[in-house]
Amino acid sequence: MSAVAGFAAVDVAGFGYTGGWLRPGALTPGRFTDRFEDIYGRHDGFRRNHAKGLSATGTFESNGSGTAICRASVFRRGTVPVVGRFSLGGGLPDQADKPDTVRGLGLLLQTSDGQQWRTAMINLPVFTDSTPQGFYERLLASKPQPDTGKPDPQRMATFLERHPETAAAMKIIRQAPPSAGFAGSTFNGLNAFRFTNAAGATVAVRWSLTPIDDGDQPPVPPPSGNDYLFDELIHTVAQRPVRWRLVLTIAEPGDPTDDATKPWPSTRRTIDAGTVIISAVQTEAPGNARDINFDPTVLPDGMDLSDDPIPRARAGVYARSFTRRAGEPKSPSEVRVS
């Protein structure tokens, strides 16, 4: 049960009501945002989930291979500027770094024609929930009890009985231990999207960032200090850029596109589309990634949403969370680049 509780803050922002797949009035962006505040408390000026973070800048060097399946200009051969944010799951901006806390990486890529691609990824192989309603119910079941500081085991067991897809996803996640640090993490988009190429052919795609220089990283010292994961990343980027390969995985007929708890077979065709390079990190401050809403529904021409309900639903709570923190006084970031 304690392992299950650790995934309460998996998502990069939460979900909201968009209509059609939820009962009218059952869920709203405000209710989801309130739920995060109920669990983690209110921390003015910070995201309601993935509150602890570090801004970053770099580039995406496209090798042109992605144009085989997508006409978006970001995949044409060349270099595109990137603004990013590394984060830890949860609504506590000063939480202590732990190796098993979910790690996030949000990216904004903007091409010379003014189009944007925003993506929010985490270091898990699958997502924990197939629907927004399931995610919300898991938040309720995962709330720490006042007397123990831990979730009620019976409440969580009841939730898992009602949601076997989450129990199956947890099993997959437990079999994929996290890397030692941010730089060596594989970050996965998890949800399926639809890519259309210049000829009009459309395929379902999931994407991942896989570390290129993992074997070249200096040994990570034993955990020390409240911010050791971020401190290690700051130190690494000061020594050299950190690079990931952008890998596009193409679905075949029958592969689930509406349920991110289910992995696609490892035999699926993949395309190495280029390299994401993070060359600098910055303390969160006005004008950098602190103020960016990494809404995964912001897509360039050639990319579209699939039948997965999660990205559509997330957009509402991203907006609500952003509106709240934008109007609040800003506290200093826990993670600082000296």
TrEMBL record:
This protein's UniProt keywords: Heme, Iron, Metal-binding, Oxidoreductase, Peroxidase
Domain Catalase core: 8-336
Protein name: Catalase-related peroxidase
Record flagged with keyword Nucleotide-binding: no
Biological process according to GO: hydrogen peroxide catabolic process; response to hydrogen peroxide
Active site, per annotation: 50
Organism of this sequence: Mycobacterium gordonae
InterPro entries linked: Catalase, Catalase_core, Catalase_sf, Catalase_SrpA-type_pred
Family label: Belongs to the catalase family.
Binding site for heme: 318
EC numbers, comma separated: 1.11.1.-
Cellular component GO terms, alphabetical: cytoplasm
Cofactor(s) needed: heme
PANTHER family: CATALASE
Keyword DNA-binding: no
Pfam families: Catalase (PF00199)
The protein's role, per its UniProt record: Has an organic peroxide-dependent peroxidase activity.
Gene3D superfamilies per the UniProt record, alphabetical: 1.20.1280.120, Catalase core domain
Domain of life: Bacteria
Any GO MF annotation of the entry: catalase activity
